[in-house]
TrEMBL record:
Gene3D superfamilies hit by this protein: Macrophage Migration Inhibitory Factor
Keyword Disulfide bond: no
Domain 4-oxalocrotonate tautomerase-like, first and last residues per copy: 2-56
Similarity comment: family membership: Belongs to the 4-oxalocrotonate tautomerase family.
Native source species: Ammoniphilus oxalaticus
InterPro entries hit by this protein: 4-OT-like_dom (IPR004370), Tautomerase/MIF_sf (IPR014347)
Name the record gives this protein: 4-oxalocrotonate tautomerase
Keyword Isomerase tagged: yes
GO function terms (MF aspect): isomerase activity
Keywords, in A-Z order: Isomerase
Any Pfam family the entry gives: Tautomerase
């Protein structure tokens, strides 16, 4: 059973997350030739102040 971990900024709607989950599940099942029921997805939402790129947190980037 594959486990997909998705880390992304918080703020997306439940509908947007559900659409992503459906699309990723379908892609994993299709490419690995497994049942969709065997795919687990864990979403971790990160605050922009807790994610940095190039030494600058995303809440400070323009």
């Amino acid at each position: 059973m594959p486990i997909v971990r998705v880390e992304m900024f918080e703020g997306r709607t439940d509908a947007e997350k559900q659409a992503m989950v459906r699309a990723v599940t379908a892609a994993m099942a299709s490419s690995l030739k497994i049942d969709q029921e065997d795919v687990d997805i864990i979403i971790q939402e990160i605050k922009r102040k807790d994610w940095a790129t190039g030494g600058v947190t995303w809440d400070q980037q323009s």
